[in-house]
Amino acid sequence: MLSIDSLHVTYGGAVQAVRGVSMEVPDGKVVAVLGSNGAGKTTLLRTISGTLRLHRGRVESGSVRFGETDLASRDPAQTVRMGLVQVPEGRRIFGRLTVEENLRAGGMGTRDKQAKARALDRVHEMFPLLKERGSQRGALLSGGEQQMLAIGRALMASPKLLLLDEPSLGLAPRIIGQIGEVIAEINRQGTSVLLVEQNATMALGVADLAYVLDVGEVSLSGDARALAQTDEVQRLYLGHESGTDPGAAAHVPVTSGKKLSRWSA
Amino acid sequence: STKAPESGGGGGGGGGGGEAADVQTDIGVEGETIRLGVLTDLTGVFAALGKDITNANTLFWEENKVCDTYTVELDVQDTGYVPQTGVQLYSGMKDNVLAMQQTIGSPINTALAPEYEADQIVNFPSAWSKTLTEIPGTGVVGATYDVEIANGYSYLFEEGLLAEGDTVGHIYFEGEYGANGLAGTQAVAEEMGLEVIEAQIKSTDQDMSAQVTQFAAAGVDLIALTVAPGQLASVATVAEAQGLDVPILGSNPVFAPGLLQGPAAGWLKSHLYVASPVSAFDANPETLEAYEAAYPDATPSLGVVVGFGMSEIMKQVLDAACENGDLTRAGVLTAFSELEEVDTGGLVVPIRGYETGKSPSLENFVLQPADVPGGAKVLAEAFQGEFAEKIAG
Amino acid sequence: MTQFLSLLLNGVSLGAIYALIALGFVIIFKASEVVSFTHGSLLLLGAYSIARLSEPIGFFPAVLVGVAITALAAFLVERLIINRLRGAPVISLAIVTIGVDIILLTELIRRIGSDILNVPHPWGGGSFRIGDVGISENRLIATIVAAFLIGLFFLAFKYSSWGVSMRASAEDGETAALMGIKQGRVSALAWVVAGVLAGVAALFLVGSPTPGVSPSAYTVALRAFPAAILGGLDSTGGALVGGLLIGLAESFAAGYQDQLLFLGRGFGDVVPYIVMIGVLLFRPSGLFGTRELTRV
Amino acid sequence: MSEATATKARRSSAGGARPLPGTARGRSLLKPVLLVLALVVMLALPLYVEEFWLRTGFAVFGAVVGAIGLNLLVGTTGQLSLAHAFFLAVGAVTYVFVSGESGGIGLADLSGLGLPPLLGLIAGVLLSGLAGLLFSPIAARLRGIYLGVASLGLVFIGQHVLNSWTSVTGGFNGRSAPEFSLFGFTFGNTDPDLFVLGVPFREAERLWYLGLVLALAAYLFARNLLRSRAGRALQTLRDSEVAASVMGVNVQRYKARVFLVSSMYAGLSGVMFALSIGSIAPESFGLEVSILYLAMIVLGGLGSVGGAALGAMFVSALPLIFQRYADTVPFVGGPGEGGLAAGEAARYLFGLAIILVVLFEPAGLAGLAGRFRRKARDPGGGRTTSRSSAATSSSTTSVPSDPPAQGSTT
Amino acid sequence: MSTASTAGADVRRDIPPVEIENVSVRFGAIKALSEVSFRVEPGTIHAIIGPNGAGKSTMFNVLSGVYRAAEGQVRFGDDRLDQMRPYQIAGIGVARAFQNIALSGGQSVAENLMLGRHHLTKAGFIAAGLRLPKATREGKVHGTRVAEIAEFLELGDKLHTPVGVLSYGDQKRVEVARALCTEPRLLLLDEPVAGMNAEETARMAEAIREIRSALGISVVLVEHDMGMVMSLADQVTVLDFGRRIADGTPAEVQRDPEVIRAYLGSGDEIDPAEAADAAATGHHTGHHTTETPGTPS
Ligand SMILES: Nc1ncnc2c1ncn2[C@@H]1O[C@H](COP(=O)(O)OP(=O)(O)OP(=O)(O)O)[C@@H](O)[C@H]1O
Ligand SMILES: Nc1ncnc2c1ncn2[C@@H]1O[C@H](COP(=O)(O)OP(=O)(O)OP(=O)(O)O)[C@@H](O)[C@H]1O
Ligand SMILES: [Mg+2]
Ligand SMILES: [Mg+2]
Q1: Which one is the CATH code of D36-286: 1.10.3470, 3.90.1720, 1.20.58, 1.20.5?
Q2: So which residues are the signal peptide here (chain A) (predicted)?
Q3: How far, in Å, is the centroid of ligand 2 from the Cα of A133?
Q4: pLDDT 10s digit of each residue in chain A, 265 long?
Q5: At the topology level of CATH, where does A2-91+159-250 sit?
Q6: Nearest Cα residue in chain D from E120
Q7: How far apart are the first and last CA of chain E?
Q8: Measured in angstroms, how far is the CA atom of residue A43 from the centroid of ligand 3?
Q9: Does the complex come out with an ipTM higher than 0.85?
């Protein structure tokens, strides 16, 4: 469905954020992308949704195709109409709009009134709070509430392919669990998902396939379950040294052991 | 340095070249060409007036020579009615011009007054405010606004359109022009026991409903205006709508021929009296013909008459200086101050001479809108009203 | 009393015209977060076109074409300039509209020249009287039209998705685009509508009791500014209330000039701004504007 | 930056603590040499150039001072102000009143204190600052465009006062400004007569140097300020007031101070304006002036001190120069000839320039200049290197594409 | 409280406890906080946890003076935080890293960090504008410390990068670094590891531990990453719907049925698929039953 081929992306012509990434999101699958801060995950999503230009980024080479269409020259609104919807990083809800209006805005991409009504019901069911707070201004929600709104908003478009940039950001553990379920549920209903996550436990839990990005390149890829067993993923993303007691993770000096001196003017 | 020798010579540039070797010259005369400066407004609020006056100036000097010898070239610069620009442009032209044929706008004239004085420049402003008479070398082309409006009152009293003890509503622009006109009204009011209702507006105010409503409520017998044509049109429409059937007296900038195309035309033709320092076209058909021949696209206003008039006065000054054998700036200034009884052949009211602080003339025409070229006919030839002497100082 | 009523009516009808222009500001601001300084010259363009076309093609066709021209001009400004400046700082956007304004205004003033162009309204300079109190017919019609249009837009914002799209894309263009909102279209439409409103306002503005089309029609936009702000820049109803307040304040200040003498002559022109500042001190986002929210 | 992506370096601890240089951009020798050169040219100019240019120069210097001041307020602190013309007026009127004599031409019965011009200048700057300080509590309540339009009110109120308070301001016609003088040395045409290398140093020449010194001082002060603790606080205020206050910035006080400083700049600029024209009038302090100043800082590049100076030069000199050399420009006819008047052509060009700069160089003239500078530094350098340097240093002037501190969005 | 001792002898003398008493905050109908009380012992790492919208950030807003409490008191030693303005609170050494990043995107990391030094430095407009030597000197001294802190939080190589172009995780680091740059006595961290992966989280946890022990200050931490909270905190306060529902050591809190119900949920609810190593769940659900909070190294 979505295929990315040896993609190179730079910002301002200088910062090479994505370097030769190839990736597939097969129809009906959930694909997770892991990677440390600055690995290029967000950049990847921006390229797909067509917002790269707004950040002075550019595709240097390679291609991104959605089915038969090349996404390179599309603008974001067109992309949405093709059924690709992205939940941007850092929530980006419309602070001055009410919760309800935020959800309405999410449905702007489709004409189908019934589909929208169904989507709205589903969102309300998923996040009852969004119904309760329908007339509250978006900016006043707590961080996590905003995140729920951001996800709900994206679901309003009933996408074919959902791009999620760290949906679990700032959510309470219980809700993260729910998000995992929601993703699985959406997927069951036929939506493919490309999931960028830091919470690897959740991501690898729902994903069929996974990629690990490292400084702009794919360092690992394959079946999500298999990947979860590899040393690197265990250590970097699941938070334990393989084979050792998981509880000890916190004690292993994974840091460089930096010291901080006291300040005296 | 490139600059040292050039201006170090201190103005020997002309050196009295050419045939008229006995005439002394300094700045702004080269061979048989005199350069005069024009700081006009071709793009600002008074662009229309500026164009007409400037065109008339140009036309005049195409057909006239000083002393039958010197042709006159104009250095026309457009200030857009911005003082800053005016000052800058003057600094650019001042080393090349003998005198200023025209400077538009009280603010620019005021800003340049010290410069003109220092540079011994003779200048003709196209404004009639009293302040301008205080600048040495600056020659107002006719009576000042206060005298003008007072003469207008004289006419109305004479014709029985206004009586002692009546009430007058006066709308005036903030600033010199408006205040000067108002001073005229006040002076007359004092003499004749008029009650005056004053309403000050800005030049950008177009809707006179509130003011006229106020006048109607007070039952005025006359509306006096020192404003611009736009406000006049509004006053006329509102007065007509409210049935305020009283004469309207305005000073010369109030009227423009374009008004006769508007809805107020009828009312204006029967109610408006304009006191003016210049005559109308119907008295000077040849002026109009010449102008229309030269600028076929233009719809000439009375600014044209003003332009011809001020050029005529300038010519008389320069001729006199030339006869005195002194076409230096100082010489021109002397000739200007010695001027007496200037007659422009009926274009402009007779000028009695230029004396600091005094209105150069005591006379005015009274015009009324009519369907004639230029849009106005002469109701009264140049005359001196009963209040003029006292106000003019 | 008569005077008071006259001034009141006059203020209301003047306010209606301000409100039309202010509504244009509001719509543009809502859709693109641009404070449009082009409005003054759009207004003048509308007035000029109507005046110039009236003679050759007749009044009503001229109105249609004139309004269309104004809308087209607004559309072009959006397409050629504003559209390319997504995400630029508010001030830059404002300045660029000033650039457009300078060009358009220069051209119009050049064309209008010394003339006061007359617009031959079929309703002429007549006035509608109730007892001693009169109001110009032109103004009366303007008031009705303004009320109708403003009501229309009020409903449109409330019940159509257009309003939501506009506000969403104004607040965060990138995210709005991610929701499939065609930002370009939303904003272009807003400009067109604002252009139409300016055209309609111009039509009435240059009728009785104002003399006709002269360059100073332009400055009216400067008074619609405080009207829009006073009502709250993102509020349709605010534009109406703001317009009326400014119209009334101006009318009364001019009509009762003598009673206000202690403030200096010609104080009427300052009044709209004084009223505006006064209101803003108590309601920093205007009477009906949404308050700026910041949460951390 | 590009290295970080090239090598697969994990965040390394190598190097230890490094002191933080004020501006750690590579500085070549070129810059100081160019600066000295420019200064020498500026100093020598009055020897060669005619009065028109010198006067234009002084007007530009005045505008530079004003634009830098406005930029501190708008560009740096994000307080949109359309009141700049008002503060200019306060400075100009104060100067004229304090240093001018009573009397004067016309109906106006002018009063003046007749004090030394230097005192007038200082009073102008201080009073203007005070006006800014008084307005700051109102300003503190308002934001963005609301503040902008409210401040517009000041301009209209100012106009009203200028027109009405005739004894001080000269009313509608204004009044003339006394010559500047410094400890007995006047900046007029004579007194003392002065010749340098045979060139008579008259008012225009003298004012040029005065302007140069004042503008330079204003520039340096603002530049230093921006790179300091106070400058950072102001910049944070623009991005998020809450964040600034939580980090220890007294928001009210800083807002008041920046209004104070900005309007002091405006006051100085106003005094220079009065000197440049030789008189003041209400017309000179209208709304257009405020707008022109905004145009200066946007064209120059918001937030950049040098940019403000460039913008001021562009906006204030262009129309004058165009006006003066109108005859040499195609399509422009004389009056009545049906063609464009020079002033109109100048306005078209000006409007067009504004649009083009904003469209194609969002970082303003400063951005443009920066690009030239980089070109000069590595002429013909490989495409990649020049691009990479463009990316790193343009970010210091340009507005980031995704401002992170907008409350609702992050 | 026994946990206070975990900080050891390194606690700075001038660090008083934070006493929060009956604090309530309302927004219209929403009760963001109702009568919340707890106490932060000097030199401890004190976590506040709770579901989304429980009022954690609101508590921070009260502590840093952004919101006014409708009722109740907040004392930090002799200072009444509930009566002070934000900048005054910063002045007495309370620093905060924001949940929703609030940095100046156009400025470099270094400049953002230098803002943290604001209340420690003095140079005013005049000193700065004239570049008086004392201002320059001050800038240098503090610049060194800023560089040190940046290095400590792994931002050393990004000092001159504009913050706006950094990735989300790096921006969070800058937030923490900026707060640290104020040399706080009380450090408030709102979700410092949001957007970081496990390894990065562990490094940040390590850094926080080091901050507490090296500087001997109190840290209040809001975080949803239970693994981190449980291993790092000395004391945990749990909020739900604006009310305090539990307060105690991590071990105590984790067992609290109320907390499990409202916040943690049961294990299987959280882990939707068993794909990952079952042990991994421990990381996010806080099954560190045997684990006592880490002692600072
Ligand atoms: N607008 C931009 N201009 C320049 N560089 C950028 C820009 N946006 C991102 N970068 C750089 O590109 C690289 C990849 O960033 P990206 O945001 O894609 O990372 P990420 O994997 O999403 O990280 P995180 O997990 O922290 O969100 C980083 O080095 C970042 O600094
Ligand atoms: N200024 C405000 N106006 C109205 N409601 C507010 C305001 N600030 C916070 N709230 C509400 O108060 C509640 C608590 O918000 P708070 O931000 O403290 O939650 P939180 O515990 O930090 O949640 P999260 O973990 O999701 O960040 C939320 O429901 C929020 O909507
Ligand atoms: Mg990211
Ligand atoms: Mg929170």
Answers
A1: 1.10.3470
A2: none
A3: 12
A4: 888 999 999 987 778 889 989 998 999 899 999 888 888 899 999 999 888 888 888 888 888 888 888 887 778 888 888 888 888 887 888 988 889 999 988 888 777 888 888 889 988 988 888 898 888 888 888 888 888 899 888 888 888 899 999 888 888 888 888 888 888 888 888 889 999 988 888 888 899 999 999 888 888 888 888 888 887 777 777 765 544 444 444 444 444 567 777 777 5
A5: Rossmann fold (3.40.50)
A6: D248
A7: 21
A8: 7
A9: no
